[in-house]
Amino acid sequence: MDVRMVWRQWLARHDRVRDALPAVPLIVISMAATAVGKSAWHEPRWGEVVWTALSCVPLAVRSRWPLQIALFTLAGDLTLMAVASHMSPAPAASLVALYTLALLGDRRTAWAVGLAAAVAITGVYAATHSDSVVAGASLLRFDFAVAATALGRTVRSRREHLAEARARAERAERMQEEEARRRVTAERVRIARDLHDVVAHHLTLVNAQAGVAHHLMRANPDQAYEALAHIKENSRAALDELRATVGLLRQPDDGPGTRAPIPRLADLDNLAEGFRASGLSVRVARSGTPSPVAPSTELTAYRIVQEALTNTHKHASTTRAAVVLDYGAHSLRVTVTDDGRPDAPKGAGTGHGLIGMHERASAIGGTLTAGPRPEGGFQVVAELPLSLAPAAA
Questions:
Q1: What is the CATH code for 265-393?
Q2: Which residues sit opposite 326 in a β-bridge?
Q3: 378, 338 Cβ separation under 8 angstroms
Q4: N or C: which end of the chain has fewer CB within 10 A?
Q5: Which residues are within 8 A (CB) of 82 and not within 5 positions of it... i.e. 6 or more apart?
Q6: Residues 6 or more apart whose Cβ sits within 8 Å of residue 81
Q7: What is the pLDDT of residues 188-218, one digit of tens each?
Q8: Rounded Cα distance, 391 and 172, in Å
Q9: If you write DSSP's letter for every residue of 254-297 in order, what string do you get?
Q10: In the chain, domain spans
Q11: Considering the entire predicted model, what is its pTM?
C-alpha cells in the first residue's frame, strides 16, 4: 500500500494531531530565525521560541472552530507585537489560522477577517517600530496575511473542483450502468417478441396442417402424407428458430456473424409458401424501386408480416391474404390485408400480437396502424424507415 495513502488515512482518523502538525515547522523556523546573527550563529532567542510554541497551541482545534481560533491567535499575536516590539515576533500562528478559516469557512467571512488581520498586523508593526505602513517590512506582513487567505481559498476551490469531477465521474458511471441494464432489458423484450412470433406462427401452421391430415387420413392418404410432411418441416423450422433465438441468451459474447441468419424480406416468399401449405393463399407483391434496407428494418418488416398472417390464419374466416411492399424514397410501407367477412367469428386472441407489432415498429422509428376495412377483412399497415438513425439503430 502507498505510504502517503496510509499517512493520510491515519491523519484523517486523528484530526487533533493533523491540526497541530503545522506547529512543528513553525517552532523549528522560529528557532532558526532567532539564531541567525549578522556575522555568525548564536543561541536562539528562547522568548520568541516559547511564544511561538504557545501561540500554536490553539491550532490543535483550528478545524473545529476556524473563526474563533483565527480571532484568538490574531489577538494574541497583535498583543505580543504591541508589548514586546523588541522581539519582532512573526504572526505565524495567525497566518495558519487565517489559512484554515479560508479553507473551511465561507468566502465573505474569510476575506473580511483576512483583510482586517492584514491591516491590523501592518498597522501594529509600523506603530511599534516607528516605520511607515508602506515600508518593505510592513508591506511584507500585509502580503503574508493576504497570501494565507488566498492560499486557503485556492486550495478549497481545487478540492471542490476535484469533488465535483469525482461526482460527475460517478454519475456518468451510474448512468452507463443504467443504460447497460436498459439495453439488456430491451434485448430481452426483443427476444421475447421473437419467441412469441416464432411459436405462434409455427404452432398455428402445425395445428392447421394436423387438422388437414386428420381429415384426409382415410379419404386421401397421399394428401394426408403431404400434410404430415409439412408438419415435420414446420416443426423443424420452429425448433431451429427457437434454438437460434435462445442461443442469443446463452452466448452473449458471440458476434453478430456467429448467430443464425436473420430473416429478411427475401424470405417472405418462403413464409407465404408455408401458409399456402396450411390452406391460406398468400400473395406477395412489391411496388416502387427496391432500395437498400437496414437489417433492423428488414427483420421488423418480416416479423410484422409473419404476425399479421398468423393472426389472419388463427382469427379470421378467410382463405386469402395479400402482402404488399411499397418502397418509397425514405420509407418502406408494408401492407397486409385479408378478405375475411365482417361478421366472421374471431378466435380468442389476447391482443399481444398487435401490441408486439406496434412496439416493433416504434422501436425503429416507424408507425403501425391496424383495424378492420369498410369493405370487409382486416388490414395492417406499417411505415418503416429504410435507414435508421444511430440512436434508433
A1: 3.30.565.10
A2: 287, 333
A3: yes
A4: N
A5: 124, 128
A6: 89, 91, 121, 124, 125, 128
A7: 677 677 776 767 666 777 777 777 777 777 7
A8: 19
A9: --GGGSPPPP-GGGHHHHHHHHHHTT-EEEEEEEE------HHH
A10: 3-173, 265-393
A11: 0.43
